[in-house]
Specification:
The chain is built from 13 helices and 12 strands. The protein is α+β, with helices and mostly antiparallel strands and 410 residues long. Strand 4 and strand 5 form a beta hairpin.
């Protein structure tokens, strides 16, 4: 018996018991659909973290002011004002692992353009900030050295601010007011999307840090060089841990911290945090796929059960086939093809249901999902393997029947 003849015979046998075949395939259908959907959800979560890492920039650390203690009361993180622009310059110059160190300060402000206004985040920083975050401009230019030194009234805006203030019009060279200060837009940033906290990174307006201090914040002479955070980018291939230790030693020396005293600053390695989130997402994807894979195994047990019943019901047919010349391997092939056909048809239906379920999760639950060809291929191959594995024993049992005994079976 050739393959196609065995396939036709298998399809006829399955069609003769349609309802039983459908119920047998149900475990495979649910298993394949669950595997595809769970992998899509897990991969979507992983992709989301990777997008956040890309939006953040690679090898990024934040140096933040520490807490202060007043009257024995600790006021918490970032309540101190220990960091300055000179500290940022020293980090960039004296720590060999560091590529850039950009000081920055941030506040919220109402921004007005003509008859339109929008409340956004105003960031005072340097061009190094954009380099560290790998944030490119889609139009315009960066700050010039003279603008940085002279507190020039210029700004670079994110796309959310541009959309809210100007719609589809070109924002370049437009004059807006930030806390009643007229500012000219010289550049627009590429789209970044949301960060890990769900905040819109494109809802921002960036000015030179000197402009922020002297015009927007209106700082006094005693606070001219204070900064809220130093954004540090470590060189590619350099150790983040070594850079963190060297920054800590340098700042303790500059701030004259006594041995054993608490650091008046905090260092956060954002890249490691997001990498840990990505690893967690991958582990969760594997766990979800493993749980869904249990349904495939249960479906395989159902196939074995039904195939054993089928062998028993068709014992006389098997004996008749052997009596007219069918060999044991022909009987083995026929029942194996039946088992694999059940698995593949169930797998194909499961793929369709999994695709619909994945779409529904993304559409109605609002989750980011990613269904790949690899997950479909994996689920399909696994379903075929389940058919072979659980169908082999019944098929082998059928092929080992003796023709005389089979013909006598009642």
């Amino acid at each position: 018996m050739n393959f196609f003849a065995a396939l036709r015979s298998a399809l006829r046998a399955l069609a003769a018991n349609t309802l039983r075949s459908i119920l047998t395939m149900l475990g495979i259908i649910i298993g394949v659909a669950a595997v595809i959907t769970m992998i899509a959800v897990g991969q979507g979560a992983t992709n989301r973290v990777q997008e956040q890492m890309k939006g953040l920039g690679s090898n990024i650390m934040l140096v933040l002011p520490g807490g202060v203690t007043t009257g024995g009361v600790r006021l918490g993180a970032q309540t101190g004002q220990a960091l300055t622009e000179e500290d940022a310059l020293a980090i960039a110059k004296d720590v060999p692992e560091v590529q850039i160190a950009a000081p920055s300060m941030r506040t919220g402000a109402q921004v007005v353009a003509g008859n339109t206004n929008w409340n956004t985040s105003v960031l005072g920083t340097t061009n190094d900030y954009l380099e560290g975050r790998e944030w490119l401009l889609v139009s315009g230019r960066n700050f010039e050295a003279a603008e940085m030194q002279g507190s020039a009234k210029v700004a670079i805006i994110g796309q959310t601010v541009a959309q809210q203030l100007f719609g589809d019009a070109d924002p370049l060279d437009q004059v807006i007011r930030v806390k009643k200060i007229p500012v000219t837009i010289i550049g627009m940033l590429e789209k970044k999307g949301q960060n890990s906290l769900g905040q819109d990174q494109d809802d921002t307006l960036i000015v030179p840090i000197s402009t922020y201090r002297n015009r927007i914040q209106g700082g006094t002479g005693g606070k001219l060089k204070r900064v809220g955070v130093i954004n540090v980018k470590v060189k590619e291939g350099q150790s983040m841990k070594a850079a963190e230790d060297n920054i800590k030693d340098l700042l303790r020396q500059r701030l004259k911290v006594q041995n054993g005293a608490e650091d008046p600053f905090n260092i956060r390695n954002l890249t490691e945090i997001l990498q840990a989130q990505e690893a967690s997402s991958r582990i969760m994807t594997l766990l979800l796929a493993a749980v869904a894979g249990i349904s495939l195994i249960i479906g395989g047990i159902g196939i074995m059960n039904i195939m054993l019943v089928s062998v028993t019901e068709r014992t006389r047919e098997i004996g008749l086939r052997m009596a007219v010349g069918a060999r044991g391997k022909d009987i083995l092939a026929q029942f194996l093809i039946e088992a694999v056909t059940l698995s593949l048809i169930g797998g194909a239906i499961g793929v369709l249901i999994g695709a619909v379920a994945t779409w529904a999760v993304g559409q109605f639950a609002g989750w980011q999902v990613s269904m790949t060809a690899a997950s479909i291929f994996l689920a399909t191959i696994f379903s075929a393997v389940v058919g072979v594995f659980f169908g082999f024993y019944p098929a082998r049992r059928a092929s080992k029947l003796l023709p005389i005994q089979a013909l006598r079976y009642e």
